[in-house]
Amino acid sequence: MVYLQSLGAAKLIVVIAIFLLTFYVISQVFEIKMEANLGHIFARSALDAAARSTKPPRYKCGISKACPEKHFAFKMASGAANVVGPKICVEDNVLMSGVKNNVGRGINVALVNGKTGEPLDTKFFDMWGGDVAPFIEFLKSIQDGTIVLMGTYDDGATKLNEEARKLIAELGSTSITNLGFRDNWVFCGGKGIKTKSPFEQHIKNNKDTNKYEGWPEVVEMEGCIPQKQD
Fold it and tell me: What residues pair up with 121 in beta bridges, in sequence order?
């Protein structure tokens, strides 16, 4: 009887020992898995944070640096030959582009409120097969304090006359007097400007240096336009 009791006690001790050993092994495995999962999560978070910190910031219109306070960001490009139209962006708002389907052969013009940066009007004037008179009337109608952005597409000069060139020069352009057949040109000025604008790029049509057959390469320009103050 004593022998049986001792045997039963021994079995019980063995069962308890096996249970405790099994529990210990399971807890260790679970702890290892938890540590591995947490380690993976923390490592992933650290990598994501590092990626975010190294990603370069994006500025309005995709320009290379942020504009100071009380300035409007802009970026623009002339047309490419007679295939891709010009693009004009102000304050992260694309005003004119081929995608918007509001550009055309000649001189493309966007008007922006000089105080608020809000778009006022967009138009294009065919300077190859069109009439310069509507363009002249449009230029005369621009109100003081208006920001004026212009870009050529295909040909922006053939129909330009002295009066039209003078009106554009009064907006701050220096290159308009030399703009010729199929030249590429982008310009940002303003009505009532007292000095010549620093925002202008011009490439002559030259068969020896043209990037495209019959047209020079695209001209691009970006910058920060000072807000008009009262």
Answer: 111
